[in-house]
């Protein structure tokens, strides 16, 4: 799933390629992708792009008519830049193409989604705040006013495990499964530790890991073409998706805990005092 660093890089890429250019066609290919119907997507046609912004994991493309094309790429969605776009209209079918945006220059982009779980979402709204997912977002962890004191206040009464708290978009915007693993590894904390149990020193360490991990990932992604961002993300991850590999810090074997639709990775030596975390799903499979 694209998370804050990748969406930030897409925002920068699209700002460079879209700002000041006129949209001539918006073609939804998969009906499931559209989450709003008034205004229709055709209302964007003829508008000139004025800005591209990021809200958590949402991309927000604004045109001079006052409308916004808002996108959430979900788990398997992606944006593919085309220069030029293929000739002729796209054909609806079972392929990954969900929506195409064409510019007057002949360039444009496709929104695609792999797999059968169609969760990619597109909204056409007059105000991004009309999108429920944006309206409920917590603070952006890279915002200038997101200091350690504000972070501590968010966690003070949080009774969930750190892994779940970091992924909650209404608590902190933009962090998902991959970067929560990376942040906790950098902070040397168990993903199962209760957020409200942190000492002031631990809170400071987690805050530094949060800001440092995301800032470094954004810098790695800056200037990378949209089509290479997935590869760039994967190459920069130290523990997430690396089950069975040696920890780059201590050399211990990276372990995994599986859930119904996801998994987390961690280093026992760095994060849990050398003790493997209980993986109930794997335990059931081994019985």
The stretches of 5 or more residues where confidence is low (pLDDT under 50) are 283-287
Give the % helix. Answer: 25-40%
Amino-to-carboxy terminus distance: 32 Å
Q: Taking strands numbered 1, 2, ... along the chain, how are they ordered across the largest sheet? A: 1-6-7-5
Task: Label the overall shape.
Answer: elongated
- Overall mean pLDDT score? 93
Count of helices?
Answer: 9
Q: Per DSSP, what share of the residues sits in E-state strands of 2 or more residues?
A: 15-25%
Beta strands, count: 10
Rg, alpha carbons: 20 Å
Quick structural overview:
With 287 residues, this protein is of the alpha+beta class. It has helices at residues 4-18, 132-135, 148-155, 162-167, 177-187, 200-221, 229-236, 268-271, 280-286, and strands spanning 23-28, 49-55, 58-63, 68-72, 77-82, 97-103, 108-113, 121-125, 255-258, 263-266.
Q: What labels would you give this structure?
A:
alpha+beta, four-stranded antiparallel beta sheet, single chain
What does this structure look like?
The chain has 287 residues and is α+β, with helices and mostly antiparallel strands. 30% of the residues lie in helices and 20% in strands. The protein has nine helices and ten strands. It has helices at residues 4-18, 132-135, 148-155, 162-167, 177-187, 200-221, 229-236, 268-271, 280-286; strands at residues 23-28, 49-55, 58-63, 68-72, 77-82, 97-103, 108-113, 121-125, 255-258, 263-266. The chain has a four-stranded antiparallel beta sheet, with no helix packed on it. Strands 2-3-4-8 form a four-stranded antiparallel beta sheet, covered by helices on one side. It has a two-stranded antiparallel sheet with strand order 9-10. Strand 6 (97-103) and strand 7 (108-113) form a beta hairpin. Helix 1 packs parallel to helix 6 and helix 5 (177-187) packs across helix 6 (200-221). The radius of gyration is 20 Å and the shape is elongated. 36% of the residues are buried.
